[in-house]
């Protein structure tokens, strides 16, 4: 089973699209944005999930980096 949260590759203009269970949550420009999207989705302890590969998959680019390549 794949992680329910996917943080996609940085966009050319910066930021990363975040999907939760296949639904677009928004465009994150930093970890705080991701945590807010997860909180809105009902995950109050989201900060602790960002480095848990069973919850979050970081695609294309280094984790926690949101700038365009």
Output the keywords.
69 residues; alpha+beta; 4-stranded mixed sheet
Describe this structure in words.
The chain has 69 residues and is of the alpha+beta class. The chain has one domain (5-58). 14% of the residues lie in helices and 29% in strands. The chain is built from 1 helix and 4 strands. The chain has a 4-stranded mixed beta sheet, covered by helices on one side. A hairpin with a 2-residue loop joins strand 2 and strand 3 (23-28).
Structure summarized in a few sentences:
The protein is of the alpha+beta class.
Task: Summarize the helices and strands and which ones pair or pack.
Blueprint (H helix, E strand, L loop, with lengths): L4 E6 L5 E5 L2 E6 L2 H10 L15 E3 L11
Parallel strand pairs: 1-4
Antiparallel strand pairs: 1-2, 2-3
Q: Sketch the major β-sheet.
A: 4 strands, mixed
Shape summary: globular
Estimate the helix proportion, in percent.
10-25%
Number of helices: 1
Structural class: alpha+beta
Round the mean pLDDT to the nearest integer and report it: 93
Spatial ordering of strands, largest sheet: 3-2-1-4
User: What portion of residues belong to β-strands?
Assistant: 25-35%
Q: How far apart are the first and last residues' alpha carbons, in Å?
A: 29 Å
Low-confidence stretches: none
This entry's quaternary arrangement is: single chain
Cα-atom radius of gyration = 11 Å
